[in-house]
Amino acid sequence: MRPEAGRPVAVFDSGVGGLSVLRSLVAELPGEDFIYFGDRKNAPYGGRTHAEIKEIAEKNADMLFGLGAKALVVACNTATAAGIEQIREKYPDRPVIGIEPAVKPAFEAGCRRVAVMATPRTVGESRFASLLAELSAKFSALAFGLPCPGLSEAVERGEVRKDYFDSLFSGLEFDGLVLGCTHYPFASAEISAAAPGIPLFDGASGTARQTRRRLAEERLLREDGGRGRVEFIPDDGGAAERFWKEHI
Ligand code: DGL
Predict the structure, then answer these.
(1) Best mutation site among 45, 122, 128, 146 for ligand 1, i.e. most ligand atoms within 8 A of its Cβ?
(2) Alpha helices in the chain (DSSP H)
(3) Domains held by the chain: number
(4) 172 band by pLDDT with thresholds 50, 70 and 90
(5) What DSSP state is assigned to residue 8?
(6) Of 62, 61, 42, which Cα lies nearest the Cα of 52?
(7) What per-residue confidence (pLDDT) applies to 224?
(8) Pair (77, 132) in one structural domain
């Protein structure tokens, strides 16, 4: 165990979405301290340009590593798709873990026609297109992107409605749904009501397992037997902390 192992793991998203990942991280790594940043000032990320997301992602990484984080989890599919390479280039000695849409678990569970719900920005990214094409070829199945404009904002406002999904899914055929934005697990009841019987997949637990692997590889797992804490960087109105206390 390296001396830096006692430092926290930082996690960021555009708002409350990354809390769906933080929940899995705390379950997988109960001995770690986490600091969470919900970047509401720059939200929503999903309608921004590639260049804007790269810049925002790098700024967040600078701020969180500046606070002494030993590792960074980008708990946002949009920021991972557009900005993670840049963060890794800037911080080659730190573990930087991103979240990818859970297409592989969906194919492995036997789905053959998978709709990958994500923000418009994520769906427009070449990293997203390559992942879907590569896995579709490997499994001889089909994964296609389904942009969901406005959905992360509706989750933030607590105003998700089933009608949104009724029109989104209308005329589409699929046997599996991937929640390719970390906000969407908080809309799973409404999604399932509009697509009854269709299994949902998200990348939170895979990201938590990958975080454990990377910390272990770097000898950065905290192994003093203590119980970890979660701290929130103040956002406007303390929204992430309130959501965590009320919903998680
Ligand atoms: N939660 C983010 C994601 O996973 C971004 C949502 C947004 O700000 O549009 O893509």
Answers:
(1) 45
(2) 19-28, 50-66, 77-90, 103-108, 120-124, 126-139, 151-157, 162-169, 188-194, 204-217, 239-247
(3) 2
(4) very high
(5) P
(6) 42
(7) 82
(8) no
Could you tell me if 65 and 147 lie in one domain?
no
- Lowest-confidence segment of 118-127, 142-151, 154-163, 223-232 by average pLDDT: 223-232
Instruction: Supply the DSSP string of 123-189, one letter for each residue.
Output: HH-HHHHHHHHHHHHHHTSEEEEEE-TTHHHHHHHT---HHHHHHHHTT---SEEEE-STTGGGGHH
Distance CA 28, CA 23 (A): 9
Distance from residue 186's CA to the centre of ligand 1 (Å): 12
pTM, rounded to two decimals: 0.96
State which ligand 1 atom lies nearest to the alpha carbon of 181. 4
CATH number at residue 159: 3.40.50.1860
CA distance 62 to 67: 9
Residues 154 and 182 in one domain: yes
Distance between CA atoms of 7 and 88, rounded to whole angstroms? 19
Interval 179-222: pLDDT, tens: 999 999 999 999 999 999 999 999 999 999 999 999 999 999 99
